[in-house]
Amino acid sequence: MVKASKPLSYAHLHAYADKELVDPRRVDVADFVKTHPNLIIYIRDYEFINKQLHDLYDGVLNEPIPKRLVAIVKRHRKGTKRVNKLMLILIGMVLGGAIGVLLHQSQQFEVFSKAKVLIETFISRMI
Questions:
Q1: What tens digit of pLDDT does each residue of 4-14 get?
Q2: Range of the domain at 55
Q3: Residue 115 domain-assigned?
Q4: Comparing 115 with 29, which gets the higher pLDDT?
Q5: Using an 8 Å Cβ cutoff, are 14 and 21 in contact?
Q6: Angle formed by the axes of helices 10-17 and 23-35, to 10°?
Q7: Is residue 48 part of a domain?
Q8: What total of structural domains would you count in the chain?
């Protein structure tokens, strides 16, 4: 996008509009924007949208979190570890099964059969 010492992205433009860039990078972006007027329009649009969002939602962000919501989150956290372990086991089983089926059916494809040999060799060394 940019011919600079380090490439610039739209994330840099957003950070520039939010005044979150450190001085050397801010200067790079400012210099580039001066030579590309279409980006000035983009930055102004972003600043306008950002201001509108803040005007709409800052009041909500400053409201206290309802106590019943905090209680629900605390209850949910207690059971989360067990659910996460079960989900990982289930995902592993599904992926393992899918890989097994693919490798079994892939005898006709040379690339897959080579991958199967590599995986089988790796597994045999692990055991």
A1: 457 788 888 88
A2: 10-61
A3: yes
A4: 29
A5: no
A6: 110
A7: yes
A8: 2
